[in-house]
Design brief:
eight-stranded mixed β-sheet; 12 helices; four-stranded parallel β-sheet; alpha/beta; 31% helix; 380 residues; 16 strands
């Protein structure tokens, strides 16, 4: 099956500008995003047959990204794709949090038309800025591919949104998925696709995104990240719960291991309705139920959900998307009907309108990684 088209007529591509290095210029003491989308596009050699249309959404360094801005971006993409004449969407975005925004959009992207993130490692006013080449590539991808979800086009490579993280701070090739193959490559005016990313069934646009777009006040759920390390205790995890966190990502060691004290705090948090996910600070590979003594075996028993190969930033986005999900829209999303039906009779819906057991099932669905317990323990 091919995921490439060969357009014979001009293709309209909406370019949503959000800031980042690709829109940054020298401010006297450092770089900051201050250029609009038209300025970013001014230096781009637009591919033949592509008609870009710029939307300036906001203009920030992506280290200043917020859930509200990401939901605004999600809504803007849905608005752009409401026009059937649009072939695809390109989003120019800072690289610091690109992996988070791209994954949020991928979780809610059900359209066969592509959404392609790109950016730059060198600023707009740099003589050797990589922004124009990356935008050219992203426009090619947005005009030609289908049924691949949300993608990242950067330095001649096409990545899936899911699993792709920033692995280099300054190099021209900052993104990779340490646990999966790349999706495709670009070069010589070609787009070559090697595989179709595996994706769970997408969620519908959350009501919070519509409310924010309408200017209505919305209280978004707090989701915190806590890291385990030598000498760590659950003080910060407990503090996050006390601060009102409705979701927590525990960045554990190894295959998802912490201490018995962390397991106790996770159990207490889950009892209070907090959604807890466990990832690892290790570069690649899945988290799995291998060890007890505060390891993933005990954390899962305490009510935590393992994140497979997803790392902290994207695991947090999965938790956020779960908490934002609307019951009526997501009742049939996860392939866990029996557990959800049982939960409906045994649990009381929480303040988000989703019963806790169904909420955990939905999170597992979005993570795409059921808890993994090896049949036999690894050799010592």
């Amino acid at each position: 099956m091919t995921y490439l088209t060969s357009p014979t007529t001009p293709r309209r591509v909406v370019v949503i500008s959000t800031g980042g290095t690709i829109a940054s210029r020298w401010q006297g003491t450092g770089y900051a995003a201050d250029a609009g989308g038209d300025e970013v596009l001014a230096g781009v050699a637009v591919p033949d047959g592509v008609i870009p249309e710029v939307v300036d959404l906001f203009n920030v360094n992506s280290s200043r990204m917020t859930s509200a801005r990401q939901l605004a971006l999600l809504h803007a993409v849905h608005e752009a794709l409401a026009d059937p004449e649009v072939a695809g969407v390109v989003i120019t975005h800072g690289t610091d949090t690109l992996e988070e925004s791209a994954f949020l959009l991928d979780l809610h992207h059900a359209d066969p038309r592509p959404v392609v993130f790109t950016g730059a490692q060198r600023p707009l006013d740099s003589a050797d800025s990589d922004g124009p080449g990356n935008v050219y590539d992203a426009l090619q991808v947005a005009a030609r591919v289908r049924d691949l979800g949300v993608l990242v086009a950067f330095d001649g490579i096409v990545h899936a949104a899911r699993g792709t993280v920033k692995t280099q701070t300054l190099a021209a090739h900052p993104f990779a998925d340490p646990s999966a193959r790349l999706v495709g490559r670009l070069g010589f005016h070609r787009v070559d696709i090697a595989r179709r990313p595996e994706r769970p069934r997408p969620l519908p646009l959350p009501s919070a995104a519509r409310a924010l777009a309408a200017g209505e006040p919305v209280e978004l759920p707090r989701v915190d990240i806590v890291t385990h390390h030598s000498d760590a205790d659950p003080l910060l995890l407990d503090a996050a719960v006390a601060a009102g966190a409705r979701g927590i990502v525990l960045v554990a060691t190894g295959t998802g291991n912490a201490t018995p004290q962390f397991a106790e705090s996770v159990a207490a948090a889950v009892t209070r309705g907090v959604l807890v996910a466990v990832t690892t600070r290790v570069h690649a590979g899945p988290v799995a139920e291998v060890y007890t003594g505060g390891g993933a075996v005990d954390l899962v028993a305490a009510g935590a959900v393992l994140t497979g190969t997803l790392r902290a930033g994207q695991a947090r986005i999965a938790v956020l998307a779960t908490l934002l999900a609307d019951t009526a829209d997501t009742a049939d999303t996860a392939d866990t009907a029996d557990a959800a039906d049982a939960a409906d009779t045994a649990e009381t819906a929480d303040t988000a309108g989703v019963v806790p057991e169904r909420r955990s099932a939905l999170l597992r669905h979005l993570l795409g990684a059921p808890e993994s317990r090896p049949e036999s323990a690894p050799a010592a």
